[in-house]
Amino acid sequence: MKPATAAPATEVPLPATGAWREGDPPGRRQWHRRAQPLALEAGGLLPGVRLAFETWGRLAPDRSNAVLVLHALTGDSHVAGAPGPGHPTPGWWDALVGPGRALDTHRWFVVAPNVLGGCQGSTGPASAGPGGRPWGGAFPRLTQRDQVRAESGLADALGIGRWALVIGGSMGGMRALEWAVGEPRRVAALLLLACPAAASADQIAWATAQVHAIRADPHWRGGDYHDAGPGRGPDAGLGIARRIAHITYRSAAELQARFGHEAQEGEQPRLGGRYRVESYLDHQAAKLLRRFDAASYVTLVEAMNTHDIGRARDGRRTALARVRARTVVAGVDSDRLYPLAQQEELADGIPSADGVRVIRSPYGHDGFLLETDQVGALVRELLEDAPQPSVRTGG
Question: Is the pTM here over 0.85, yes or no?
Answer without folding.
Answer: yes
